[in-house]
Specification:
This protein is an alpha+beta fold and 303 residues long. Among the domains are: 94 residues; 114 residues, endopeptidase fold (from Nostoc punctiforme) (Alpha-Beta Complex), CATH 3.90.1720.10. Helices cover 58% and strands 13% of the residues. It is built from five helices and eight strands, in the order αααββααββββββ. The strands form two sheets. It has a six-stranded antiparallel β-sheet. A two-stranded parallel sheet has the order 1-2.
Length: 303
């Protein structure tokens, strides 16, 4: 161990440079004041005292820090301005792309609307032309039916006139009476069949009784009425009349029925050749069909 380890040092502590500079500034200021006072001499009534402040290291450090902070703030502001300009440029570019996309979409929609409008106009025109064609066809069919009905009326009148002449015949033979009866029946059946066929193409309407729309029993009733025979209005009432006949022994003018005889739900008129005329439904209207198309349940003869 050193012999001087516990001996305190008599050296004065070294002053820092900043303290020495501060004291030098203060001393310099005092000496300047004394010098000015001595130069003035004893003639001066009042001593002139002038204090000159010397810059210190502390103020220089503050100014330097302020300058560095100002430079950093300026750099930061410039970087911020550049960032804002870049964002504005990107926003303008994005807006331009969106506007271009919106315009293309608007053009596409406008083109689609024009195409749809053209399609609708074409469909409307085709529908008008179809309606006009149907109207012309219906007018021609109606004129044809009217002509057939006129001819039917003329034929019925001629048949009635022939029947009257036969009734005034004085022969009185049973053979002549039988022949006359057969002719009358044949003429009546022909009138019924002719009337039914004249309505082919008319519409089916529930409760329809003519002249251009029918239901099944309305058509049968009207056909028999044209031959001077009154029938009930309802289908099961019509099928309950007359005499039941086999489907293999049908004659023109017989009434066909579907369902039971006393509870039929549909009727039509047999027109010969294995066919019948009936007001079927709203889809087909009045049609002439083969018995095989919709075989009936039975038939009755009213003539």
């Amino acid at each position: 161990m050193s012999h001087t380890a516990h001996i305190p040092s008599h050296r004065k502590p070294r002053r820092s440079a900043s303290k020495l500079a501060l004291r030098a500034g203060v001393a310099g200021g005092v000496l300047s004041t004394i010098a000015v006072a001595g130069a003035a001499g004893p003639a001066s009534a009042e001593p002139v005292t002038e204090t000159i402040e010397m810059p210190t290291l502390g103020s220089l450090g503050t100014d330097l820090s302020s300058a560095v902070a100002a430079s950093a703030e300026a750099s930061q502001q410039e970087a911020l301005d550049q960032s804002l300009e870049a964002q504005e440029a990107a926003a303008l570019q994005t807006a331009a792309k969106e506007a271009k996309k919106a315009k293309a979409e608007a053009d596409r929609k406008a083109e689609a609307e024009r195409a749809e409008k053209a399609r609708q106009e074409a469909e409307a025109k085709a529908e008008r032309e179809r309606a006009e064609a149907e109207a012309r066809a219906e007018a021609q069919a109606r004129a044809s039916r009217d002509s057939a009905r006129t001819q039917l009326s003329t034929t019925s009148a001629s048949s009635d006139s022939g029947s009257g002449s036969g009734s005034s015949n004085d022969s009185g033979s049973s053979a002549g009476s039988s022949s006359e009866s057969t002719q009358v029946s044949s003429g009546t059946a022909a009138s019924i069949v002719a009337f039914a066929r004249a309505q082919v193409g008319d519409a089916y309407v529930t409760g329809g009784t003519g002249p251009n729309s029918w239901d099944c029993s309305g058509l049968v009733q009207a056909a028999y009425a044209a031959a001077g025979i009154d029938l009930p209005r309802i289908s099961y009432q019509q099928s309950s009349m007359g005499t039941s006949v086999s489907l293999s022994n049908l004659q023109p003018g017989d009434v066909l029925y579907w369902g039971s005889r006393s509870g039929s739900y549909h009727v039509a008129i047999y027109v010969g050749g294995g066919k019948y005329v009936g007001a079927q439904n709203s889809s087909t209207g009045v049609v002439e069909r083969s018995l095989d198309w919709d075989p009936p349940s039975g038939a009755v003869r009213l003539l």
